Amino acid sequence: MVSGVSQPTRNGFASPYVELDRPAWASLRAATPLSLTEADLQDLRGLNDPMSLDEVRDIYLPLSRLLNLYVAATRARHEAVRGFLGEDDRPAPFIIGMAGSVAVGKSTIARLLRSLLARWPDHPNVELVSTDNFLHPNQVLTERGLMSRKGFPESFDRRALVRFVSEIKAGKPRMDIPVYSHLAYDIVPGQTQEVHRPDILIVEGINVLQPPPIGRLGVADFFDFSIYVDAKVEHVRTWYLERFEALRRTRFSDPRSYFHNMAEFADDERAMRFARRTWATTNEVNLVENIAPTRGRATLVLYKDADHQVQRVRLRKT
């Protein structure tokens, strides 16, 4: 067994999970090459995200290798079923779900994985979709009294999201979905993202692992692999506030920004009081009540430390 691997137990019983510290996980990279450059990584980083090439090498190259093995095994299983049925259609896309709190860095990880997975020769077409595209427009949220709960499960058009993932999994050659603008803080009228039948689809969002209502399908029912990006609440709170400060100096300064008034505050503390209140009343509540409880449904959990670096990985083996 690789050094640094532990087998957790639950109530005295063996767990289906294995936990690996950073060196043990990094050793599983094997011969997977690092073809990403610092310039490539700069294009993938989110605002205030300190992702480094060392982090890519130690954490995301092993994950890329694991996912490539999963894709190959899933394809073989699908081919066996198609052979049994006498079908010769194209294999279904492999779908990866990625969940975690606001400001935990999952969007950077999703973009990074998209880039790394597309470099494997067997699945060059990797698409990335954010569930923000399936938020109800602000007008609908306002009419339903949900603007203060934006990001909570009920603020999403879950039926449209499930329909999209279901039809992609069924092999529909093209889907047009709405586009969410973080600048406008709303769905953009008349604008769509085209998703052409991918080899791999990454679906990234805070609530993608939410269980569905009884008797219905949820988006996670269509995932072949799922990832949860985890960190202590106090660390995520710090990252959220740091990102808010950075946004005030950048995106919020654009007159088209929904939060342009935050950049215009002469008193920095006034804006930061707003950020702390928003975190405490919305984002932390959503994290504790809705997002974190779905962690146990993930195939793999990445545990981040205060410096944003992953120090531990938990993988479900069965």
Description:
This protein has helices spanning about 20-25, 40-45, 55-85, 105-120, 140-145, 160-170, 235-250, 260-265, 270-290; strands at about 5, 10, 15, 15-20, 95-100, 125-130, 175-180, 185-195, 200-205, 225-230, 300-305, 310-315. The protein is an alpha/beta fold and about 325 residues long. The strands form three sheets. Strands 1-4-12-11-10-5-9-6 form an eight-stranded mixed β-sheet. Helix 3 crosses helix 4 (about 105-120) and helix 7 (about 235-250) crosses helix 9 (about 270-290). The radius of gyration is 20 Å and the shape is globular. The relative contact order is 0.16. The mean pLDDT is about 90.
Main attributes of the structure:
alpha/beta, 9 helices, 318 residues, globular, 38% helix, 12 strands, 20% strand, eight-stranded mixed β-sheet
Biggest sheet details: 8 strands, mixed
Number of strands: 12
The CATH topology annotation reads as Rossmann fold
* Alpha carbon gyration radius: 20 Å
The CATH architecture term is 3-Layer(aba) Sandwich
Total count of helical runs of at least 4 residues: 9
Counted up, domains total 1
Strand order of the largest sheet: 1-4-12-11-10-5-9-6
Can you say what the CATH homologous superfamily is? P-loop containing nucleotide triphosphate hydrolases
Residue runs with pLDDT of under 50 for 5 or more positions:
none
From the spread of the alpha carbons, the general shape counts as globular
Order of helices and strands: EEEEHHHEHEHHEEEEHHHEE
Overall structural class, as computed from helix and strand content, comes to alpha/beta
Percent of residues in beta strands: 15-25%
Top CATH class: Alpha Beta
Helical percentage: 25-40%
Q: Roughly how many Å apart are the termini?
A: 17 Å
